[in-house]
Amino acid sequence: MAKDIFSLQSVGYAKYRPGYPHKIFEFLSTLAPSANAAWDVGTGNGQVAVGLSAHFKEVLATDLSGAQIENAVRKGNITYLVEPGEECSFASDRFDLITVGQALHWFDLDRFYPQVIRTLKAGGIFAALGYGLIQVNPQVDQAVSILYREILGAFWDPERTHVENHYRTIRFPFKSDMREFSIKANWDLEDLTGYLNTWSSVRHYIDRIGSDPVAEFKGELRKAWGKGPKQIYFPVFMKYGKKVG
Fold it and tell me: What's the pTM value of the predicted model, to 2 decimals?
């Protein structure tokens, strides 16, 4: 079953995790056989589900974490359910599109992929989205890299390697294609530190060491950041494929 790592960070996750660009959902809607129903698995606070809701009549969004669902953005055509993707309650041949945003690496794929194959219509699309390490400028990028690799390196789950290689080597149930997008936004230092506090490795560090690594490193981040808001960038990757037959 998928790991529930983010329940304790659900409020920060909803506030500070970056949203995906609308171009992704426009693109996926052109691939799906119809615009009737989509399922967003591991929805978290509903970032992907909200994007899908503009293009599909009905969006079902599930997450293992009830705390995440409580903080999800509500839309009239989105139904949120607390249940694991590996044990979904949906009927067979139900969905035109199934998505997983920044979460595929947490699932028990031996149990999850049969649910994808069962609930996806013939010709339906399965897409796994994710984003890499934040990029700001050389000074901030170096500081974030020190936090990511040197301070928190031993506290990342092994599944994180799939994100680092943009899902290129993760097992996939259909013949796949890759596509790249980007997230751009204007952030201040509070946005950056808020986002860093949503990292699973930070939670692991706090649990094992008993102190907050982001708070301890904030002086270095502040020195690198300087003053004022800055444009931030996340490279977004998508691995997708079609169910044939």
Answer: 0.90
